Amino acid sequence: MKLPSISCPHECFEAILSLDTGYRAPVTLVRKGCWTGPPAGQTQSNADALPPDYSVVRGCTTDKCNAHLMTHDALPNLSQAPDPPTLSGAECYACIGVHQDDCAIGRSRRVQCHQDQTACFQGNGRM
Question: Phi, psi at residue 57, to the nearest 5°?
Answer without folding.
Answer: -130, 120
